[in-house]
Design brief:
InterPro entries: Homeodomain-like_sf, HTH-type_TetR-like_transc_reg, HTH_TetR, Tet_transcr_reg_TetR-rel_C_sf, TetR_SbtR-like_C. GO terms for molecular function: DNA-binding transcription factor activity; transcription cis-regulatory region binding. The protein is an all-alpha fold. The protein is built from 9 helices and no strands. It folds into 2 domains: 57 residues, Arc Repressor Mutant, subunit A, CATH 1.10.10; 147 residues, Tetracycline Repressor, domain 2. α4 runs parallel beside α7. The longest helix has 40 residues. The protein is globular, with a radius of gyration of 23 Å. The termini are far apart.
């Protein structure tokens, strides 16, 4: 047996597992990137076959990494769910509870407007149809505490309830626009209107609204 052939099995045995692990990691990253792009543009109803094509992998490979659509959605938006919890935590540390309350609503609505997939994933999480139990529980408890503090400060109307956040997200999620930029501008203006309606201290002048978005009445029927 030559020196070269005697070394080959050892080299193959040592390198093969590393290569497989690297391929699996790269496949997972490609799938997550492709799913994130498609979810953002088209929502969560994108077929898994389309995600696999965008990622350049087979459908079987996708299902090996993510056995269910739910597991893929949770993985794609894990960072954004964690960021929402972090924003709530930061708002709770704000000495001005009204500012903290506003910050959370503005952040969640802007994130929803920027990414259709996240908006749908957030709605699914709130309906308990995808499993992000820890993040959902922390965010809901934190927002309820923010609501209590803002009402105690006299800045938030007493009849606002944490469940009204659902109305805000439903309204914000209904914005239809030709581009993400217009959708974001419309969301900022809508949220400013809503927050003004939530104020209890009518003695203070209203804050100026963000610029109007170039929306048309015919956009309503799209």
């Amino acid at each position: 047996m030559s020196e070269q052939s005697s070394r080959m099995p050892a080299a193959s045995g040592a390198d093969a597992p590393v290569t497989l692990r690297g391929d699996a990691r790269r496949n997972r990253e490609r799938i997550l990137d492709a799913a994130g792009e498609l979810f953002a543009a088209r929502g969560l109803d994108v077929p898994t076959a389309a995600i696999a094509r965008r990622a350049g992998v087979g459908v079987a490979t996708l299902y090996r990494r993510f056995p269910t659509k739910e597991s893929l959605v949770v993985a794609v938006f894990a960072g954004q769910f964690a960021a929402c919890v972090a924003v709530v935590d930061t708002a709770l540390d704000d000495p001005d509870p009204w500012r903290g309350f506003r910050t959370v609503i503005e952040y969640v609505c802007l994130t929803q407007a920027r990414d259709r997939g996240f908006g749908a994933a957030l709605a699914a999480a709130l309906r308990d149809t995808i499993d992000v139990e820890r993040e959902r529980g922390e965010a809901i408890r934190g927002f309820a505490e923010l609501t209590r503090r803002a009402q105690a400060s006299g800045r938030l109307r007493a009849d606002f309830t944490p469940a009204d956040l659902t109305l805000v997200l439903m309204a914000n999620g209904g914005i239809v626009a030709d581009s993400a930029e217009i959708r974001e501008a419309a969301s900022r203006r809508l949220v400013a209107y809503l927050i003004e309606g939530f104020r209890a201290d009518r003695g203070e002048p209203a804050a100026p609204l963000p610029p109007a978005a170039p929306l048309r009445l015919r956009d309503v029927v799209r």
